[in-house]
Specification:
Number of helices: 15
Largest sheet: 3 strands, antiparallel
Helix content: 40-55%
Radius of gyration: 31 Å
Order of helices and strands: EEEEEHHHHHHHHEEEHHEEHHHHH
Structural class: alpha+beta
Shape: elongated
């Protein structure tokens, strides 16, 4: 395909617009695009379709106009070649959309970047590729990007996704929003997933985002409960019925390894041979998962006639802290996070470290301590990545001391005789 320029009013004595033009044979139509550049026809080389750069008709601005016009065939070739390389149809609609982005002519009040983001989310939701928690994460990253624009005065377009954006966005996340490395890396990963989709769909050919590096993920020491903790919790008599229900749901997660969001996915008829046969919400094509029940979990289910007293995850997270506070878990513990290259140590009460996710971490940790295989544990929790599974395993000081004692348990009497 070839492209050219022509004047809107070639016989005018005044300045007239220069139009970029090419022909889409498959569509049977000519593509016209205003460059925004103007020139007097007397200063235009009609034969070569460019400003006159020498001779008596040369204008002082001709060289500048020529440089501006050169951008159009270069962009045209780049877009055409990328479409070809990606197996995408090169259409007049794609060319116009990309020209609008490159030459900053997007319609007022309309941002192609966010239109594409909304389309991306809508597609993934309709295809049922995301769980409800994933949908929330992408809604959150969109809000973060929009707030970043307002705070930094950085207009987000596909053509503006570059190293400057990366540096400004990193600074905004880490210093304005106070994100730690893990939070920042997760959000940048979500952003890059969207950009991969936009690249594939032809919304952009700007692949500068490929070089955006995440912060090194730090495995932070989290809280996992012991069998003694669970027993204390189960035997504690809560005067507040609300806290008693929150405790029961939490303990049920601890002894089944189920995510809080999964607890609403089964009914009494899904329990067979003292096991829950769970069809996961987030993996529509995945086989059902069998989760064994024990005396504790069966007791809780019978207590509520096989319908757990579930509330919103946010409320459960709030109330479970109350549960542990009332149960006496008020000793101070250290929480260590990493921000940039700085390790931040923060003291807080034990109960403040507890969340709904503590239950799943407790299940995995207790199973690992008993020497059970990762494959067996993963078959219950639903993990496919063993690396992710092992990030849940929390090794406390007591476990380390006990392990060293067991390995190096020797008769001290023999040593005394030698010495």
């Amino acid at each position: 395909m070839t492209s050219t320029f022509f004047l809107k009013r070639p016989k005018s004595e005044k300045e007239t617009l220069i139009i970029f033009s090419c022909y889409f044979k498959s569509e049977g139509k000519k593509f016209l695009y205003s460059t925004g550049e103007k020139i007097k026809p007397i200063n235009w080389d009609q034969e070569n379709k460019q400003p006159i750069l020498k001779g008596k008709y040369k204008a002082a601005s001709s060289s500048i106009i020529k440089l501006q016009l050169n951008r159009y065939p270069k962009a045209f070739e780049l877009i055409h070649n990328r479409c070809k390389a990606m197996g995408e149809d090169f259409t007049s609609q794609i060319l116009k959309r990309e020209f609008d982005i490159i030459f900053k002519k997007a319609p007022t009040g309309k941002n192609t970047f966010y239109d594409a983001f909304d389309e991306f989310m809508d597609y993934k939701i309709k295809m049922q590729e995301w769980s409800s928690s994933t949908i929330k994460r992408y809604k959150n990253i969109k809000n973060i990007l929009q707030d970043f624009e307002k705070q930094s005065k950085y207009t987000l377009t596909f053509s503006n996704i570059n190293e400057v954006f990366h540096a400004d966005f990193t600074d905004y996340c880490m210093n304005v929003r106070g994100h730690i490395n893990n939070t920042y890396s997760r959000n940048l990963g979500l952003f890059k997933t969207f950009m991969f989709w936009a690249l594939k769909k032809g919304y952009t050919y700007n692949n500068a985002f490929l070089s955006f590096e995440k912060k090194k993920k730090v495995i932070t020491q989290q809280i996992a409960l012991s069998k003694v903790d669970l027993q204390n919790l189960m035997h504690y008599n809560f005067k507040n019925e609300r806290l008693g229900k929150v405790r029961d749901v939490f303990v049920f997660s601890c002894v089944t390894g189920m995510r809080f969001g999964e607890l609403r996915l089964f009914k009494k008829e899904d329990i067979r041979n003292n096991s829950i046969v769970l069809k996961e919400e987030k993996e529509t094509e995945k086989e059902s998962r069998t989760i064994p029940l024990n005396e504790v979990s069966l007791h809780i289910l019978r207590k509520y006639n096989y319908k757990l007293p579930l509330i919103a995850n946010q409320k459960q997270n709030e109330y479970i802290k109350e549960v542990f506070k009332e149960a006496g878990y008020i000793d101070e513990v250290i929480k260590t996070t990493t921000k940039g290259k700085e390790n931040i140590r923060e003291k807080m009460p034990f109960y403040e470290r507890i969340s709904t996710h503590t239950a799943r971490r407790t299940f995995i940790t207790m199973m690992k301590k008993e020497g059970l295989s990762d494959k067996l544990i993963a078959s219950i929790t639903g993990h496919r990545d063993m690396k992710t599974l092992n990030q849940y395993y929390q090794v406390d000081d007591d476990s380390k001391a006990e392990a060293v004692k067991d390995v190096f348990n020797m008769d001290i009497g023999l040593l005394k005789k030698v010495n």
